[in-house]
């Protein structure tokens, strides 16, 4: 069975560089690249039943839009790469969701793009790249 490389993708230039590098490495090792796009899903504590229903409808609408406008065109661009590409869109907290996907797919490696956040932004909000480098159960390749 081929190894699975996960490329975290958010359509930023940094995530595109990480994906390109993952594809290059996968081609050399005959691995599959699973492109994972995560829509941040922040919990709200006080929502009425109606608000929850509306939120869930938006969630499915956003997932469908991400697939059609982001992932499907990406797959078209990668179809001639010579690498088996799989796509996944999910909702959740990015670090936790990536950890779940790594475990579910028994991934061999994770590829992330570094965005170069300022020190204050990183201090206040944290960094997915920093978090994953610390907690990932598989090797992380951080692409500048």
In short:
By secondary structure, the protein is an alpha/beta fold.
Structure description:
The protein is α/β, with parallel strands linked by helices and 144 residues long. It has a single domain (4-143), classed as HUPs (Rossmann fold), CATH 3.40.50.620. It is 51% helix and 22% strand. It has helices spanning 13-29, 49-78, 94-105, 119-125, 128-135; strands at 4-8, 32-40, 84-92, 109-113, 140-143. The protein has a five-stranded parallel sheet with strand order 3-2-1-4-5, with helices on both faces. α1 links the parallel β1 and β2 (32-40). α3 packs across α5 (128-135). It starts with a strand and ends with a strand. The mean pLDDT is 87.
Descriptors:
single chain; 144 residues; 51% helix
What's the name of the CATH homologous superfamily?
HUPs
- Distance N terminus to C terminus? 30 Å
Question: What is the fold named in CATH at topology level?
Answer: Rossmann fold
Overall 3D geometry? globular
**Integer count of domains:** 1
Secondary-structure-based class equals alpha/beta
Percent strand: 15-25%
- The CATH class name reads Alpha Beta
Going across the biggest sheet, name each strand in turn. 3-2-1-4-5
Major sheet summary line? 5 strands, parallel
Number of helices: 5
Low-confidence stretches: none
Topology as a string of helices (H) and strands (E): EHEHEHEHHE
Helix content: 40-55%
